[in-house]
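Example (one chain per record):
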Amino acid sequence: MALLLSLQTVCPLCPSTSQPLRTATHAKLSPADSFSPPHDRNSYAPARCNSMAVGHMLARRFGLPLLTKAVSSRRAITTQRFGRARTVALAAWKQEVLWAEAPLVEVERAAESLYHVVLDISDNPELMAGHTTPGQFVQVRVGDSNPAFLAIASPPATSSGGSLEFLIKYVEGSTAGFLCNLRKGDTVELSQVLGNGFDIRQISPPEKYSAVFLFATGAGISPIRSLLESGLEASKRSDVTLYYGVRNLQRMAYQERFKEWESSGVKIVPVLSQPNDDWAGERGYVQDVTSLLASNGVSKERILKNF
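Predicted structure:
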């Protein structure tokens, strides 16, 4: 069995997460090692949330091979410009960052406070050659803004077609907010694809790892979408369930994709923290599922994360 966990950076339900973390510790299959660059609220460091998780229905269902954590040393970002459109930087995880201009193809509302953004990367295929695994990310800058770390929502096959798709939470005054306010044809600066993404080998072959549990909140559904549409082989497993937590259905993105995901063998369980009175589904918070499982005897090292 396996559990994959994806959380948005800032939990809108918990005041304790109103500020982003400066560093993050990532599991082995993480899109990036620990980093501490200047980043905004939509950056890729996970927030802490003290909210309660889904419930005891999950407590007895998980197990997974151990993963060791890989944490790199902190290192400040340094930047040097080469020409008009390219920038090279050394990031906190000691990976050289390349920058190139990318025009926006599409910016549209996906849910309350969430936007579907598509960037044209056809002019810089060399920067996208590393997009091979769901769960990877890029950095994006708008003008002189701090870089935002954005999980790629589209599967790797989409980048080979010349585009990258994102689900971005709008936060006024942040790089993410600037990006959501742009229009088709506007240009941003985009890094190459970074991070290792989800190590699918940890849950392969599907006959051996027959149950996979996925958790996401808010914009954290982005890398999970990439995973689901990249070939999770859900039809070959006995149980693939996605627990998707949001405040209410108005904040739940990708509902139009649910039928497609379900047809591939994925069971989708919406979990609402502030539903309408007529809501008959699951209630609660997904954010603190790691603590819930640990309190029920599941080792944290047995939980695969994308951060």
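Caption: Helices lie at 125-128, 156-160, 175-180, 221-228, 258-263, 289-295.
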